[in-house]
């Protein structure tokens, strides 16, 4: 089973600033990585798939990068609605699909 | 609007059984892989089970042998039969659609709460 590790657990950033979230896989996942956003009390929503492809309707301020075992989600200029928990997920080797433990992005 | 809706959650005693349902709206469920993902209160996401378009089924090691996933394409529905429930199965269970261009999950329901407690 591929273990996904996200860092940091909590990230405090001011609105308008840039946020960088990291995700590391215990073995290569090639580019088979997705990112999700989950707001409090809501279901997750797909942001990015195939490492860097934005899902339908996702604003351009969200971008994904990386390859192999190290990946990054960048939010270029934080808006109030972006403060949430973010999860990475690998789909290179399944079952099981595995998620990281999440990064909580909070207002500084 | 494309959406899925779960039902069937509730409070059940350890060792009991429960059946979750997922109904889609706005798309044809039969042409997509479908999944169940759960989240214990205050915890992260855990993939539980998935079913492919030809009925192939997959399970996490934590539920294999106790849970059964199925689909009824005529009813645009998917199900999760949960037997021998344990306290550690307590979670919100999300139904999710497999993304057509990847193996991510692109449409999620609002979740069904399952509480296993005596």
In words, what does this structure look like?
- The complex is a heterodimer of chains A (108) and B (118).
- Chain A is mainly β.
- Chain A has strands spanning 4-7, 10-13, 19-25, 33-38, 45-49, 53-54, 62-67, 70-75, 85-90, 98-99, 103-107.
- In chain A, the strands form two sheets. In chain A, strands 2, 4, 5, 6, 9, 10 and 11 form a seven-stranded mixed beta sheet that branches. In chain A, strands 1-3-8-7 form a four-stranded antiparallel beta sheet, with no helix packed on it.
- Chain B has 118 residues and is mainly beta.
- Chain B contains no helices and eleven strands.
- The model of chain B has no long low-confidence stretch (mean pLDDT 94).
Catalogue the unreliable spans of chain A. none
Percentage of β-strand residues of chain B: over 45%
Number of strands of chain A: 11
Q: Given the structure, what is the number of helices of chain A? A: 0
| Coarse shape of chain B | globular
Strand and helix order of chain B: EEEEEEEEEEE
What is the rounded Rg of chain A? Answer: 13 Å
The geometry of chain A reads as globular
Average pLDDT for all residues of chain B = 94
Class computed from helices, strands and strand pairing of chain A: mainly beta
Proportion in β-strands of chain A: over 45%
Proportion in helices of chain A: under 10%
Name a few traits of the molecule.
heterodimer; A: 108 residues; mainly beta; 7-stranded mixed sheet; 4-stranded antiparallel sheet; 0% helix; 49% strand; B: 118 residues; 11 strands; 51% strand; globular
What order do the helices and strands come in, and which of them pair?
The complex is a heterodimer of chains A (108) and B (118).
Chain A: E1 4-7, E2 10-13, E3 19-25, E4 33-38, E5 45-49, E6 53-54, E7 62-67, E8 70-75, E9 85-90, E10 98-99, E11 103-107
Parallel strand pairs in A: 2-11
Antiparallel strand pairs in A: 1-3, 3-8, 4-5, 4-9, 5-6, 7-8, 9-10, 9-11
Chain B: E1 3-7, E2 10-12, E3 18-25, E4 34-39, E5 46-51, E6 57-59, E7 67-72, E8 77-82, E9 91-98, E10 105-108, E11 112-116
Parallel strand pairs in B: 2-11
Antiparallel strand pairs in B: 1-3, 3-8, 4-5, 4-9, 5-6, 7-8, 9-10, 9-11
